[in-house]
Design brief:
The protein is 39% helix and 22% strand. The protein is of the alpha/beta class and 223 residues long. The strands form 2 sheets. Strands 1, 2, 3, 4, 5 and 6 form a 6-stranded mixed β-sheet that branches. The protein has a two-stranded antiparallel sheet with strand order 7-8. Helix 2 crosses helix 3. The protein starts with a helix and ends with a strand.
Length: 223
């Protein structure tokens, strides 16, 4: 991590350590622990294969597991997202979200009951159901077996959005989500809009979303 990046999260981790060491002098540098975790996340290697210039892999994983368990990782993420929204001139609390899903292969060591088969994508593994704000910053993440339909996962995401982000009143989804998701959103006072695309389009293409002109006529604008 660069110095300015570390300066943002250091106070949170120092406070976390202070409440747990109870006078014991720590010997592991927190910054190096974070660097090691980021290295694993970036390269996808197993913990035991961490290069030896990082702290021992058992130590790094121990910190990672504890930060995941007690919510430290989420608090850091939330702090960074809020700072970036403020920097971009947005309100801290979002009012709109984008919902989508992606199937990914699971590790061969993953429990069989946590995996499934996505027939449409021809992927065996898990599916990530997410909601982001309009900057693409993560608001909700739910992981299921890959066989779970997008619409079923989308309803879970809407439940989490309504619970965690009651300020969200608008959400966009693609054509993979059925009308049941729209109705489920309405039950949470979230207007879910399905954005369709031209069938001739291939690959990723930014889609126009309808907005109302001053006269009330629907026009197109890039989202």
């Amino acid at each position: 991590m660069k110095d300015d990046q570390w300066g943002i999260i250091e106070p949170m981790l120092v406070e976390w350590r202070r409440t747990r060491t109870e006078g014991r002098e720590p010997t592991t540098g927190l910054r190096e622990v974070v660097n090691a975790i980021l290295y694993v996340a970036r390269t996808g290697i197993a913990w035991r294969y961490l290069p030896h210039d990082f702290p021992p892999h058992t130590t790094v994983y121990g910190y990672f597991k504890e930060w995941e368990r007690d919510g430290t990782t989420e608090r850091i993420h939330d702090t960074l997202r809020d700072r970036l929204r403020a920097k971009k001139g947005r309100r801290i609390l979002p009012t709109a979200a984008i919902i989508d899903a992606q199937s990914v292969k699971a590790s061969p060591n993953a429990p069989a009951d946590s995996q499934g088969y996505d027939g449409g994508k021809r992927v065996k593994g898990r599916k990530r159901h997410i909601a982001t704000d309009t900057l693409g910053l993560l608001l909700v993440l739910i992981v299921t077996a890959a066989g779970v339909q997008d619409s079923a996962g989308g309803k879970q995401v809407l439940d989490a959005l309504a619970d965690r982000w009651p300020t969200v009143t608008k959400a966009w989804v693609d054509a993979g989500y059925n009308n049941g998701v729209v109705k489920h959103g309405a039950a949470h006072a979230i207007d879910v809009e399905v954005v369709t695309r031209d069938k001739a389009q291939k690959g990723f293409v930014v889609q126009p979303i309808p907005v109302l002109s001053s006269s009330g006529t629907a026009v197109s604008a890039k989202g």
